Amino acid sequence: MYNLPQKLVTEFVGTFTLIFIGAGSICADQYLVATGQSGVGLLGIAAAHGLAIGVMFAAMGHISGGHFNPAVTIGLWVTKRLSTLHGLSYWAAQLLGGTAAAYLITAILPDATWRSKALGSITPDLAGDFTRTHAMALEAVLTFFLVFVYFGTAVDAKSAFSKIAGLAIGLTITMDILFGGPFTGAAMNPARAFGPALATAHWSNHGVYWVGPLFGGVIAGFLYDRLFLRDQPPA
User: Fold this and answer.
1) Measured between alpha carbons, how far is 26 from 114 in angstroms, rounded to an integer?
2) For residue 85, what pLDDT band results from cuts at 50, 70 and 90?
3) Range with the lowest mean pLDDT among 52-66, 110-124, 194-208?
4) Is 65 part of a structural domain of the chain?
């Protein structure tokens, strides 16, 4: 049985990896385009995020549950599958992991690779009739898919996919970014938005990435728990 400090280290490392590789892939795309090469594109950026989560879940999901995302954590907390102490501690570790990754990127990469996009800082493309409310709604739906898949593969003991839950979770992130990336950046994760925003002082419409993902996480967790986990009460 792993203790809380071990779990918090896991959440820190997993979230650090997501932001370091995810935001880093955006920097790599900027560098390639600036040097006249073909960028990694939306598919490459989506795959980088999905692979980062899938690999880290496979390596450490058995230790902390592999949340790496406050929206996943709140989904488990609202269904009483995680204590308030653990939930708040996980949030702190996740936000610290995202922040450390963002600052490390700014320290080791040339400014030109990240400054123009604010380190891939998540900002909704609010134009025309796509408003802040629409952006929050899109983030909520995308996060709903992510947390619902998390519950269906990593929480539900009857899942046939439980041994490779990281693959399903990673693919969900990839899928969501392929749709939501051009509109909101498809953060689905307050820590994914917070770290780059803090490191670059880029806070434009930052509330979108707290309200949307947390709402989506609560609804997904509550719905899956009430519909499919009635015979699996919280420990």
Assistant:
1) 8
2) very high
3) 110-124
4) yes
DSSP 150-188: HIIIII-TT-TTGGGHHHHHHHHHHHHHHHHHHHH----
- Give me the pLDDT at residue 209, please: 95
The answer to whether position 215 is within a domain reads yes
Q: What are phi and psi of 138, to 5 degrees?
A: -65, -45
Confidence of residue 122 (pLDDT cuts 50, 70, 90): low
Start-to-end CA distance of the chain, whole Å, equals 14
228-231, Cβ contacts within 8 angstroms, sequence gap of 24 or more: 228/151, 228/152, 228/156, 229/79, 229/151, 229/155, 229/156
Pairwise CA distance, residues 121 & 117, whole Å: 7
**Residue 64, domain extent:** 4-228
Tokens linked to 132: 């802040």
CB 41 within 8 A of CB 10: no
Q: What is the mean pLDDT of residues 106-114?
A: 87
CA–CA separation, 193 and 203 (whole Å):
9
Domain presence at residue 184: yes
pLDDT band at residue 120 using 50, 70 and 90 as cut-offs = low
In a domain, 19, yes or no: yes
Domain at 122, CATH number: 1.20.1080.10
pLDDT score of 39: 87
Mean pLDDT confidence for 129-147: 95
Share in percent of the chain as helix, strand, coil (round to 5): 75, 0, 25
Q: How many domains does the chain have?
A: 1
